[in-house]
Amino acid sequence: MVIATGIANIWARDPFTMTAAQLTLSEAYPERFLLGLGVSHRRLVEGIRGHHYQQPFAAMRRYLDGMDEAARAYRAEKPAVAPPRVLAALGPRMLALAAQRAQGVHSYLVTPDHTAKARSALGSSRWLLPEQAVVLETNPDQARTIARRHISRYLDLPNYINNLRRLGFTDDDFVGQGSDRLVDALVAWGDVETVGKRVNEHLDAGADHVCIQVFDVEPHSVPLRQWRTLATVMLSPKQPT
Questions:
Q1: Strand, coil or helix: 34
Q2: The domain containing residue 157 runs over which residues?
Q3: What is the pLDDT of residues 104-160, one digit of tens each?
Q4: Nearest residue to 238 via CA among 192, 213, 207
Q5: What global pTM score does this model have?
Q6: Is residue 113 in some structural domain?
Q7: 139-146 long-range contacts, CB within 8 A, separation 24+
């Protein structure tokens, strides 16, 4: 089983600490750890961590430079193969940086349309690993209530809002806890076949793997039943395992 971070905040650890942890885990457990990195959001970085959040693209580029320098200076036993890293990338510049300086992209709160745009920006050789939120509920009102509980927390974060605007959504879609159009685009709800269709849309758009995030009626519950149900439809060659 491969364990991935999605996403390790670059403001939480300096580049040397992040690199040391990545190399230590990768040496101890070869090809079983995938490091995902992200710039987070101003409210979280300044309000909670007390850092000065400025020029996130430049901050990520400097951070990757620091990681590369730390890897060269690392004196403990290294893994036999350099471990991969992926970036949390949404916009054109961060996607381009991921294509140049990482193994690929882990995109979050995106649609299959964004997956197609990301694949075009990355080229064919980089990994594309989008997240897809899922609610296994066929009642529209109940499904959207659960879905809004998930997406509403992101509707005051400019990084996500700007990306959604690039995908064609407008201010009307961000009012309250999000329009039905926005909810339905970001959260796959319904029966397992409906969810499987959305996952396949990402794969058809160029995703290498789809990270399924399942939400239940009870907040913070572990959706074991839903995972087991979804496993029954993840048998097609086009579906992730």
A1: strand
A2: 121-241
A3: 999 999 999 999 999 999 999 999 999 999 999 999 999 999 999 999 999 999 999
A4: 207
A5: 0.93
A6: no
A7: 140/189, 142/217, 143/187, 143/189, 143/190, 144/180, 144/183, 144/184, 144/189, 146/189, 146/215, 146/216, 146/217
